[in-house]
């Protein structure tokens, strides 16, 4: 009797085997076979990598029952092969699903761009801000700059980048500038003291086209820019939106000045131009002045310590007729312009919007004083005037100081080291009676003030807004300090924040004692300097205890200058315990 066994098979809906199986008679297929389970186990263990399988042991056993079973055996082998293919396909699909799941898990675990930015800022001890990137003085490395560049694509709203005082930025700037197209809303770029190289300047120039909204560019204290400014300026195009351009102490040359002059024609929106501390730029001031007419909206012009000469001053005066919007003019520390004001003030008087005029250390002559005395009182909007370190102001017979009464908006007057005499000081004191908005008064290094501070009594009573009073090296005496104390007791000088009484060695211990006893009345005082001259020293008297007692009642006081006062051992102990005992952080400069 022949036993026919048909192994159970997995039916693949994509194959035609299922249809052929259904065509067989149900009588030819046993309902159950004791070997079906064994065969299925062997089929389930097939390696997915194999395509051709040898018959199983059970199949070999039944193959010996005769030739008549060849057809069935062939069908069985074909079924096994089809089952193997189906298993392979199923395993491939399982692997694909596993790979996709792994990828999704990996992406979920990877930090987002925002998370990376936050981590970067936290590493540098800075608060994340997607609009204002402040990394000044963070000791950035080249790797930090590269990482920052990779983060710019995630900061599309960025408007300000400040990387100042990071020396390692120099030589790596191209890494950053090539990514600036991701932050095309950028308005402010500050790169002070970054040791920029010629390559950096070139890359920055190339980036101008991809930051069309840039309004402020500060490259100050990068000395390597000197002689290479054209690499930057030649890339600027007409319609540039830059409003502020600062290049303080960049070692600019006369040639750089010429390049800058050409650039002014494409900077119609320029409002602030700072070329201070570039000693050679003065040689090209004639050329620069001629093109200042192209920036009629200029509000601030800083030429401090630029090596200006008398001819440059005259060219500048001619240009002022086109700068009617000018609010701040600084030509200080240009000693060689002394004597040139007599021929260079014709257009200064036309600056009706000028609020700040700085002429300190310009070696003005008596002839200059005569010209300035006619012009300065006409600057009706003037709020800050600095004439310090011009010794001829004090000895001139021209009444410039007396005419300050015509400038009622003055808030700051600096006349330090001007060689004031008793007459000129009296003129100033009288004019000060008409300056009710005065906030800053600097009379330092004028010896005539000592013993004559009472001349200012009326002005100091009226100056209810005065916040800074500098009387350093004025030869003050005890009477002068007593006057200040009496003013405070009468509720004057109540808003005073900074008081400089340094280098007044003639004040007696009694004078310091009286002053310290009334010091607590200066409620808003934050800085006090009572230091002695560098060439002297003196034992600190008993007034020191009164000083410490007053400080406990002055919560805003943060700094006390006491250089060259010699403290006793007990006074040292008092000083050491003061901050701890009173939970304060007052800095004593002893």
Mean pLDDT: 86
Compute the separation of the termini in Å: 122 Å
Number of strands: 19
Q: Which spans have pLDDT < 50 for at least 5 consecutive residues?
A: 1-53, 57-71, 104-108
Q: Helicity level, as a percent range?
A: 25-40%
Give the amount of beta strand, in percent.
Answer: 5-15%
- Tally of contiguous helical segments: 20
Biggest sheet layout:
17 strands, parallel
- Shape assignment: globular
Report the C-alpha radius of gyration, rounded.
43 Å
Which structural class do you get from the secondary structure elements?
Answer: alpha/beta
Mind explaining what this structure looks like?
The chain contains 20 helices and 19 strands. With 590 residues, the chain is of the alpha/beta class. The chain has a 17-stranded parallel beta sheet, with no helix packed on it. Strands 16-18 form a two-stranded parallel sheet. Helix 10 (254-263) packs parallel to helix 11, helix 11 runs parallel beside helix 12 and helix 18 (509-518) runs parallel beside helix 19. The radius of gyration is 43 Å and the shape is globular. The N and C termini lie far apart (122 Å). Residues 1-112 are annotated as: Disordered. Residues 85-95 have a biased composition (Basic and acidic residues). InterPro entries: Leu-rich_rpt (IPR001611), LRC31 (IPR042419), LRR_dom_sf (IPR032675). This is Leucine rich repeat containing 31.
């Amino acid at each position: 009797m022949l036993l026919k066994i048909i192994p159970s098979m997995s039916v693949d809906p994509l194959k035609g085997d299922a249809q052929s199986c259904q065509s067989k008679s149900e009588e030819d297929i046993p309902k159950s076979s004791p070997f079906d389970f064994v065969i299925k186990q062997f089929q389930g263990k097939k390696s997915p990598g194999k395509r051709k399988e040898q018959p199983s042991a059970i199949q070999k056993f039944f193959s010996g029952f005769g030739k008549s079973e060849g057809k069935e055996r062939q069908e069985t082998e074909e079924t096994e092969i089809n089952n193997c293919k189906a298993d392979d396909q199923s395993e491939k699909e399982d692997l694909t699903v596993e790979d996709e799941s792994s990828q999704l898990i990996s992406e979920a675990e990877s930090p987002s761009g925002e998370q990376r930015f936050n981590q970067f800022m936290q590493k540098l001890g800075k608060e994340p801000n997607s609009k204002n990137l402040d990394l000044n003085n963070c000791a950035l490395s080249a790797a930090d700059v590269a990482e920052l560049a990779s983060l710019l694509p995630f900061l599309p709203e960025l408007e300000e980048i400040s990387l100042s005082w990071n020396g390692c930025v120099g030589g790596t700037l191209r890494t950053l500038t090539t990514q600036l197209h991701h932050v095309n809303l950028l308005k402010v770029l500050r790169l002070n003291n970054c040791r920029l190289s010629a390559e950096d300047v070139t890359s920055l120039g190339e980036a101008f086209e991809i930051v069309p909204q840039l309004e402020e560019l500060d490259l100050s204290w990068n000395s390597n820019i000197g002689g290479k400014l054209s690499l930057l300026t030649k890339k600027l195009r007409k319609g540039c939106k830059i409003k502020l351009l600062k290049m303080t102490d960049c070692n600019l040359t006369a040639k750089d000045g010429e390049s800058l002059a050409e650039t002014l024609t494409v900077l119609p929106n320029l409002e602030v131009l700072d070329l201070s501390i570039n000693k050679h730029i003065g040689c090209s001031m004639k050329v620069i002045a001629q093109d200042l007419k192209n920036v009629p909206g200029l509000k601030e012009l800083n030429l401090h310590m630029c090596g200006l000469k008398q001819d440059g001053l005259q060219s500048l005066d001619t240009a002022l007729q086109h700068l009617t919007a000018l609010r701040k003019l600084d030509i200080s520390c240009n000693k060689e312009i002394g004597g040139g004001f007599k021929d260079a003030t014709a257009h200064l008087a036309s600056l009706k919007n000028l609020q700040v005029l700085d002429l300190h250390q310009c070696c003005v002559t008596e002839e200059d004083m005569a010209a300035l005395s006619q012009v300065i009182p006409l600057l009706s909007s003037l709020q800050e005037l600095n004439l310090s370190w011009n010794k001829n102001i004090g000895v001139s017979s021209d009444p410039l100081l007396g005419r300050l009464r015509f400038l009622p908006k003055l808030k700051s007057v600096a006349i330090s080291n001007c060689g004031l005499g008793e007459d000129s000081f009296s003129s100033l004191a009288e004019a000060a009676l008409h300056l009710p908005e005065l906030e800053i008064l600097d009379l330092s290094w004028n010896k005539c003030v000592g013993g004559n501070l009472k001349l200012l009594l009326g002005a100091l009573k009226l100056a209810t807004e005065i916040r800074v009073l500098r009387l350093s090296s004025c030869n003050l005496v005890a009477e002068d300090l007593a006057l200040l104390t009496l003013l405070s007791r009468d509720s004057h000088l109540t808003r005073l924040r900074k008081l400089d009484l340094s280098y007044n060695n003639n004040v007696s211990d009694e004078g310091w004692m009286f002053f310290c006893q009334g010091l607590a009345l200066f409620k808003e005082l934050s800085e006090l300097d009572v230091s002695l001259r560098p060439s002297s020293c003196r034992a600190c008297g008993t007034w020191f205890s009164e000083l410490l007692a007053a400080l406990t009642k002055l919560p805003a006081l943060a700094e006390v200058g006491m250089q060259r006062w010699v403290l006793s051992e007990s006074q040292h102990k008092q000083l050491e315990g003061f901050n701890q005992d009173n939970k304060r952080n007052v800095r004593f400069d002893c």
